[in-house]
From TrEMBL:
This is Heterokaryon incompatibility domain-containing protein. Residues 44-207 form the Heterokaryon incompatibility domain. It comes from the Eukaryota. InterPro entries: HET (IPR010730), HetReg/Transcr_Mod (IPR052895). It comes from Phialophora macrospora. It holds the Pfam family HET. Transmembrane segments: none annotated. The lineage of its organism: Eukaryota, Fungi, Dikarya, Ascomycota, Pezizomycotina.
Length: 551
């Protein structure tokens, strides 16, 4: 864009700054009226792929050409042909209009290297990176390019599906089976689906979350999964729904096999990011981001911020693009924004290693999903049939030039929970788990049932820290309104943050708390007496108003 065009472009516009016209391979800038090369508000496709790890330096492999695109002022990046050749790249881009499944002509594609200025330090580039959510969510159709798959995989998909379905059918029958068998087959199926660099890229993780209806393409430019004749092309959303369906079958079987606690399956879900996509939880995706491949460490925040609808660092419209942010600064900025917009969700993770002192208040390099909590804790945050009411308020405060978290809310001694659950244990359905606890830096899980595991974890923590407290993060309600009847909201579950005081020698100017994990518990158990139900909702004298600093 020239200076005049930039000045007219409204940053919160739903339209991209540029679009690629495929028939002429020309990148057209936005002009007033949402016009691109004479085309007003054209439908456009979005193309998701990964290439940064294979980018060639200027002097490397000089014979390799860049994608030929007209109408741009920047030098197009070149990619190592082992990942994909420029001929394969151009052929795939040119094929996109014919591959989209709708009965409309679509001649424009949003392609990052053709539509974002690749000049280092470009203000336009930084701003457009902060607008990825709008660009992808408003695309007519989105394609993802799986370059490690040379051709469509229908036969392999059918074979992997058959093995998994056979294993699951054994669970539902009287035939002998081993949990190891279904665990192994399920993990193999997930690994088969996600065995491509696209599932290890930071930027594509964000794009997958923004566009669950993405269609996968093989390296030859053909649809990777075609499905059965006469049926619609399976998209990421359908694949996720199918995985969720199979998961529910195993979970609900009378064998009570805990699929989610399987290390092999959990690993496959977390490595690929599918666990976050299944739950629709951006918080889960953020923890996955730290284990994905990134060209720059700053991309661990920049490459995921749009799932929270945030613009941080140099992507802010008013930002000085010459400023060089550190990863710690971006993580602090992200943590502050999550405090404001997602106070409950901001704490629904655990640390696999102890974070730096004072940094336990926000997600970081060692964050991951709190997999010992029921998936409903995450799922209900986005469900229209559930509503979460936040009970704690968060902010930040400087302590010796280090940013710590601070809280105000209701707290209760953790041993009060143990006493209550022990006292009323016989009133709880033996098939239900009344509470779930997920600790930071967890010990290897013992092969016991869920109920026993969580009780032992709670008791073990109290033996070490009998002064541990629970900060009530929020209470969730659910509704199942029918027809025109008004919604009737009922208590569902609550979540809390476990805190322990720092040693006296480390405490200055009041009580400083160290984050130790998260806990969730069921509400509305009909067999509980009224006092127990009130206690679990934070409405008895056991809870006190507390303010403190934590990290």
């Amino acid at each position: 864009m020239n200076a005049q065009e930039v000045s007219k472009f409204v940053d919160d516009s739903l339209w991209p700054r540029r679009l690629l016209h495929v028939p002429t391979m020309t990148s057209y800038p936005w002009t007033p009226g949402d016009v691109y090369g004479g085309h007003t508000r054209p439908n456009y496709l979005a193309f998701s792929y990964t290439w940064g790890r294979w980018r060639l330096d200027e002097e490397e492999n000089p014979s390799v050409k860049a994608l030929p695109v007209q109408g741009i002022t920047w030098r197009m990046p070149r990619v190592h042909p082992a990942h994909f050749t420029v001929e394969e790249f151009e052929r795939t881009i040119r094929a996109l209009p014919a591959l989209q499944p709708y009965m409309f002509q679509v001649d424009f594609v949003w392609l990052d290297i053709a539509c974002i200025d690749q000049t280092p330090g470009s203000k336009e580039s930084a701003a457009e990176i902060g607008r990825q959510a709008k660009i992808f969510q408003n695309a007519f159709c989105t394609f993802a390019w799986l370059t490690s798959h040379a051709e469509p995989c229908d036969e392999e998909y059918v074979e992997a599906t058959y093995r998994l379905e056979k294993s699951i059918s054994e669970i539902m029958s009287e035939e002998p089976y081993t949990s190891r068998s279904v665990e192994h087959d399920f993990a193999n199926f997930l690994n088969f689906l996600t065995d491509d660099p696209w599932f290890t890229s930071l930027w594509t993780l964000q794009e997958a979350f923004l566009c669950p209806e993405v269609i996968f393409l093989a390296r030859n430019g053909q649809v990777w999964l075609k499905g059965n004749p006469g049926e619609e092309i399976p998209r990421l959303k359908e694949i996720l729904m199918w995985i969720e369906f199979l998961t529910s079958i195993v979970q609900d079987s009378r064998r009570n096999f805990n699929l989610h606690s399987s290390p092999e399956i959990q690993g496959a879900l977390e490595r690929s990011g599918l666990i976050g996509l299944l739950l629709g939880s951006p918080m889960v995706l953020l923890s996955v981001a730290y284990h994905r491949q990134a060209t720059s460490e700053l991309d661990r925040v920049y490459g995921i911020m749009q799932v929270f609808n945030l613009r941080l660092g140099i992507s802010r419209p008013e930002a000085d693009t010459t400023k060089r942010f550190t990863l710690a600064e971006l993580e602090d900025e992200l943590g502050q924004e999550l405090f404001k917009q997602y106070p409950v969700m901001s704490q629904l993770h655990i640390f696999t290693q102890i974070p730096d002192k004072g940094k336990g208040w926000r997600v970081g390099q060692y964050s991951k999903m709190a997999s010992d909590l029921n998936w409903d804790v995450y799922d209900h945050l986005k469900s229209s049939r559930h509503r979460m009411t936040a009970s704690a308020q968060f902010s930040t405060t400087l302590v010796d030039e280090n940013l710590w978290g601070s809280f105000t809310g209701r707290t209760c001694l953790l041993h009060e929970f143990e006493a209550a659950w022990t006292a009323y244990d016989k009133l709880i359905d033996p098939m239900r788990v009344p509470f779930e606890i997920a600790l930071d830096v967890p010990s290897p899980r013992r092969p016991v049932d869920d109920r026993q595991y969580h009780l032992e974890t709670l008791q073990s923590l109290l033996r070490e820290h009998d002064d541990a407290i629970v900060l009530l993060l929020g209470c969730c309600e659910s509704t199942w309104a029918l027809g025109r009847r008004p919604a009737s909201w009922k208590p569902c579950h609550a979540v809390g943050l476990i805190l322990i005081p720092y040693a006296d020698s480390e405490v200055r100017n009041g009580t400083y708390w160290q984050r130790r994990g998260v806990v969730s518990w069921k509400l509305g158990e009909p067999r509980y007496p009224a006092e127990m139900r009130m206690f679990l909702q934070g409405e008895t004298d056991s809870w006190t108003a507390t303010s403190g600093i934590f990290g």
